[in-house]
Amino acid sequence: MTMPNQDQSALFVMDGVKGGHDGMSYSNPKKFRKKKQEALDIEKLADDVCAGDRTALSKAITLIESSNSVHKEQAQKLLQELLPYTGNAIRIGITGVPGAGKSSFIEAFGTMLCKMGKKVAVLAIDPSSSLSGGSILGDKTRMEELVRQENAFVRPSPSAGTLGGVHKKSRETMLLCEAAGYDVLLIETVGVGQSETYVRGMVDFFLLLVLTGAGDELQGMKKGIMELADGIIVHKADGDNVRPARRTMQEYKQILHFLQPSTPGWISTSLTVSSMEKVGLDKVWDMLMEFEQTVKKTNYWNIRRREQTRDWFHSMITDQLIDSFYGSPERKQQVRSLEDEILHGRLTVTQGVNALFEK
Fold first, then answer.
1. Taking the CB of residue 155, how many other CB atoms lie within 10 A of it?
2. How many C-beta atoms surround the C-beta of residue 307 within 10 A?
């Protein structure tokens, strides 16, 4: 029997092409090496922030918001460098009921101020999801006209679960913006809530935005929020809503007349504004300037800021104590063990807490 040619045999295996599956030749894969992080020059970053470099300011805020231990230390060194250049802006907290148009107002108001030659920084706080922890951070995209202004800086940040509708680093971010030369700071909170006292404790002027025609507005508005407000804006006062807005404004003025003023020496008032038609924005600025002049005459401007700094110091002590408490692995294990005891009904909650603090 004649043996078939080896090349024709079904058992013959041809030599494969050299290279990859597509016939291309490839060099040996290189091992991935993590790029060594360059040392951060704190002094240069501070100089760039003071020079008004918006990229440097964004970098500085990112550093402040970082939870990395090295970044935290660098952030405090940066703040120490910049402290002498802070405190020269008017800090305005802006809150309001859902749908009141806070972003629309800030864009229209901030754009007007920029055209007046003011440098405006907007710290827009978006609510974080209680499930995923994420935020949309859409305020910057909604303020298209404002972000195009050369004198404007818009920084959205997640609330990250912090009470009061602000980021836990909002106070330090304000200092960075002041060091960068911004003379008007607009802090937009996530909305009305019982913890808005936190915002009141970090701004000079607290502005509340409300709507008309929403149904029993005065009953629906929390008295506590109104007592904190230095001014109330009845927003969206345009079209068929002009008359109802004016009527609502008068009602709020009457209410404010009977409430204790938020700021000693200042009588809180109410105005109507249409951001869409750019009406009433100048009156808001006049109100702010009158407020600043009045409060500085009595020196309460400086007194309030010192009180706010003191309160900030004490709140930071509380935060540090909490971090230190949960930072110990042994403590974490003890908490988990006590949780199990409580959930199985072998301990009461009070007994579990007492066990954590037993010597």
1. 23
2. 12
Closest by Cα among 255, 163, 270 to 209: 270
3-state SS, the chain, equals: CCCCCHHHCCCCCCCCCCCCCCCCCCCCCCCCCCCCCCCCCHHHHHHHHHCCCHHHHHHHHHHHHCCCHHHHHHHHHHHHHHHHHCCCCEEEEEEECCCCCHHHHHHHHHHHHHHCCCCEEEEEEECCCCCCCCCCCCHHHHCHHHHCCCCEEEEEEECCCCCCCCCCCHHHHHHHHHHCCCCEEEEECCCCCHHHHHHHCCCCEEEEEECCCCCCHHHHCCHHHHHHCCEEEECCCCHHHHHHHHHHHHHHHHHHHHCCCCCCCCCCEEEECECCCCECHHHHHHHHHHHHHHHHHCCHHHHHHHHHHHHHHHHHHHHHHHHHHHHCHHHHHHHHHHHHHHHCCCCCHHHHHHHHCCC
Joined tokens for residue 141? 């995209």
Alpha-carbon distance of 226 to 221, in angstroms, equals: 8
Cβ pair 149, 114 in contact under 8 A: yes
Please, which residues bridge with residue 206 across strands?
93
Name the nearest CA neighbour of 112 among 223, 277, 320, 238. Answer: 277
| Confidence category of residue 138, pLDDT binned at 50, 70, 90 | very low
Least Cα distance to 63 among 82, 83, 89, 45 occurs for: 45
CA distances from 274 to 118, 210, 266 (A): 21, 12, 25
Q: Could you read off the pLDDT of 288-313 as tens digits, one per residue?
A: 999 999 999 999 999 999 999 999 89
**Mean pLDDT over the full length of the chain:** 83
Which pLDDT score is estimated for 320? 86
Place of tokens 């105005």: 271
How do 205-210 and 90-96 pair as beta strands? parallel
